[in-house]
Amino acid sequence: MDSTSPRPLAVVTGASSGIGYELAKQFGEHGYDLFIAAEDAAIERAAQDLGRTGAGVQFLKVDLARPEGVEALYGAIKDAGRPVEAIALNAGVGHGGDFARETDLDAELRVIDLNVRSTVHLAKPVITDMVARGSGRVLFTSSIASTQPGTFHAVYNASKSFVQSFAEAIRNELRDTGVTVTSLMPGPTDTEFFERAELEDSRIANSYRDDPAEVAAQGFEALMKGKQKVVAGSLRNKAQVAAGRLTPDAVKAQMHRKMAEPESA
Fold first, then answer.
1. What is the enclosing helix (H) or strand (E) of 229?
2. Residues recognised as catalytic
3. Domain 9-260, architecture per CATH
């Protein structure tokens, strides 16, 4: 990637597939060069594909659930010698099942490490740099899951509640700095998420899923407009979030149970 390129630079994590890949594509198609990262080997192919947008693309295969992975990514970004004009903190993972009787603690701690700790870890230096420069755009991939207790998906939903709260707090802190913060809140989306989270045997996995390209386009548009947040995807997602404001948490937990409980149970 040419350090003298006139195109601004966007960083996207979790960009090998799904919403992350589509977000990177949005940036590439709208005049940005790209620095993309993910833990799987598919990130190299994603980089090749994204080069067709006309973007200069650099990639790093790295496990952001490990502190040294975050440090390696930030170091590589700095080595690129270009300011980060936009970053999409999108990397995340889920793990489903009955917390006390089914799920694996190491897997749940990895959810926290990737969704929560690494998000804070990478946001800290990147946003600090943006504030010092007086400009930048930050997109956090949250979820409509952040608005409800996640029965049979307890740690994941809690992690997204953290991301949502974190994003909105930082947005307020940065309101006079030239740096904008936007949260992207998709609903069930047609990605590999459910397979990786071991939620294939559930109503939510087998119901309607939104197109990740549509979700990413809505997220990119909201980011460019400096919006606080966007509930992306179908109208049902927006209706669910709106109704949730008036619904007791105990009721929402039971509703989530019906959607996430294994159908074979």
1. strand 229-231
2. 156
3. 3-Layer(aba) Sandwich (3.40)
